[in-house]
Amino acid sequence: MYELSIYLAGEIHSDWRDRFRSALEERGVEATFLGPQEEHQRSDDIGEEILGEQPGPRYRDLMGARVNTLRTRVHMRHADLFVACFTDKYRQWNTAADAGAAVAAGIPLILIRDPEHLHALKELDAMADLTVETLEQAADAVAYILE
User: Fold this and answer.
1) Which of 62, 2, 65, 4 has the alpha carbon at shortest distance from 36?
2) Fewer beta carbons within 10 angstroms: which end of the chain, N or C?
3) How far apart are CA 122 and CA 2, in angstroms?
4) Model confidence at 90, in pLDDT bands (50, 70, 90)?
């Protein structure tokens, strides 16, 4: 058996990543986890931290997004598997964009989404290697990969 490198895409405001890591641990799966900056304020501030003060909010957000996108692209290139989790909180355009980029890069994708989001995510669902409804189902699928 080998250790997977798993990119965890999704909102950074809830504990879904910790719950998923615990579910994998319960199944005896060892993995390296990659993903976006989980400290929200650091993610928002990083553009100005690196590039200096920007002339307005639009450029502040754009420069932060560029630095965060650089991080995401580097991490994605090291991922064996991409897990994109859509929770019931927040609009998750970043998650959809990251999942689409993973598909375009040929990285296998597990999509986690509630049945109520079937219509909203139907195109992404069609591109995913596997779509599940719970973190536990995703953890079972990852464990199965390593059997």
Assistant:
1) 65
2) C
3) 33
4) low
